[in-house]
């Protein structure tokens, strides 16, 4: 390899290393981009109805904050009250279970008594797990300030991107060679459309799952049915794992009334999950986002391994964007063109020179950046 190639390789490896070190910041930036895209599409809907952009943006932001406040207003008070009652009833349940075991020992033959578990031994065996859970809780509380700061950072970045999205888009496009900038602009358009489709489909599925959960829990007379239904709809944004996480608090609160309700809630959430995965999501996402189920699950495992909970939450939009870039850049522009020259024909690729990106350049510039003219050599000879 020549000296210039070595320098280029070292620069590439160094850039990848730096990007890996700041992966947390990049993930927060992507979260801000997704949120800004969502609010921007909502503001554009208001603009199409005749409203000015400034008022449309303010209205979209107001709706977002109203939704966040309403979510916590529904979830937090109900859950605090129910889980306080749960912590009060759990010791009573343990004591009742211990009395039932003692009564059972008086009914079974003496040779079966050693096989009946002792509640004290069960508590001792579960003590390491309890300590681990408590330790994780304390660690969670200790990092709450970091979570708040990251949330504020995402909100501030979202506001900046939403105020003037074309300026930041122009800066990103300038990072590519001049002959490829129109192509990058077209890819960004596809990413925006796909993200908007995912947001629309996910919102519809979230509302349907939340409504089904509230209805089913109300029929079962489970306390805090509205809060549990809203939580189930919100966690439905996390495919595969979200419904599993949402069933735990619902079963715990149902256990306060009767054990059979706990089993009924489990069956209810299983039915809702089957309906969502087999009917709701295929219908809603059919014209929005096309991702194979295995790809979705693998992306979740990948992003949660390297980026934690936020990576799990953003796994699907990250996968949607990564799919477009791989499909358009790697497959379409590189692999599909590799070896496309045939022995009996020549291919002439004419790439018109792109004008410099000055202050008057906008993202609405046409993306047709190349024209192909193929001539057969036999025609040339004639």
UniProtKB/TrEMBL annotation:
Q: Which organism is it from?
A: Halotia branconii CENA392
Q: What is the lineage of its organism?
A: Bacteria, Bacillati, Cyanobacteriota, Cyanophyceae, Nostocales
Transmembrane helix listed as a keyword: yes
Q: Which residues form the signal peptide?
A: none
Q: Name one Pfam family in it.
A: AI-2E_transport
| InterPro entries xref list | AI-2E-like (IPR002549)
Q: Which domain of life is it from?
A: Bacteria
- The molecule here is called AI-2E family transporter
Q: Which UniProt keywords apply?
A: Membrane, Transmembrane, Transmembrane helix
Instruction: Report the family membership.
Output: Belongs to the autoinducer-2 exporter (AI-2E) (TC 2.A.86) family.
Annotated Basic and acidic residues bias: 372-382
């Amino acid at each position: 390899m020549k000296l210039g190639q070595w320098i280029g390789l070292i620069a590439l490896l160094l850039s990848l290393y730096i990007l890996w070190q700041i992966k947390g910041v990049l993930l927060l930036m992507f979260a801000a981009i997704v949120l800004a895209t969502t609010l921007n599409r909502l503001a554009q809907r208001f603009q199409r109805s005749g409203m000015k952009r400034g008022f449309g943006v303010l209205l979209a932001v107001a709706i977002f904050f109203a939704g966040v406040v309403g979510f916590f207003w529904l979830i937090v008070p109900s859950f605090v009250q129910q889980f306080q009652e749960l912590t009060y009833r759990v010791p009573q349940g343990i004591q009742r279970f211990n009395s039932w075991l003692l009564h059972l020992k008086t009914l079974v033959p003496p040779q079966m008594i050693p096989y009946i578990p002792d509640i004290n031994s069960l508590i001792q065996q579960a003590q390491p797990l309890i300590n681990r859970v408590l330790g994780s809780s304390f660690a969670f509380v200790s990092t709450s300030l970091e979570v708040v700061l990251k949330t504020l950072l995402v909100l501030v970045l979202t506001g900046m991107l939403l105020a003037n999205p074309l300026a930041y888009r122009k800066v990103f496009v300038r990072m590519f060679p001049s002959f490829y900038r129109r192509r990058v602009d077209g890819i960004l358009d596809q990413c925006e459309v796909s993200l908007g489709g995912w947001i629309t489909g996910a919102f519809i599925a979230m509302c349907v799952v939340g409504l089904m959960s509230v209805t089913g829990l109300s029929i079962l007379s489970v306390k805090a049915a509205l809060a549990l239904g809203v939580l189930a709809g919100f966690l439905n944004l996390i495919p595969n794992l979200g419904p599993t996480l949402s069933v735990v608090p619902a079963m715990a609160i149902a256990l306060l009334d009767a054990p059979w309700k706990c089993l009924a809630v489990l069956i209810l959430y299983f039915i809702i999950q089957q309906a969502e995965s087999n009917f709701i999501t295929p219908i809603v996402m059919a014209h929005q986002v096309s991702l194979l189920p295995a790809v979705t699950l693998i992306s979740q495992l990948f992003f949660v391994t390297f980026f934690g909970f936020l990576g799990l939450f953003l796994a699907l939009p990250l996968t949607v964007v990564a799919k477009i870039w791989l499909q358009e850049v790697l497959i379409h522009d590189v692999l599909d063109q590799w070896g496309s020259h045939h022995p009996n024909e020549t291919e002439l690729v004419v790439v018109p020179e792109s004008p410099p990106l000055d202050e008057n350049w906008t993202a609405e510039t046409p993306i047709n950046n190349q024209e192909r003219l193929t001539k057969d050599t036999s025609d040339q000879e004639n």
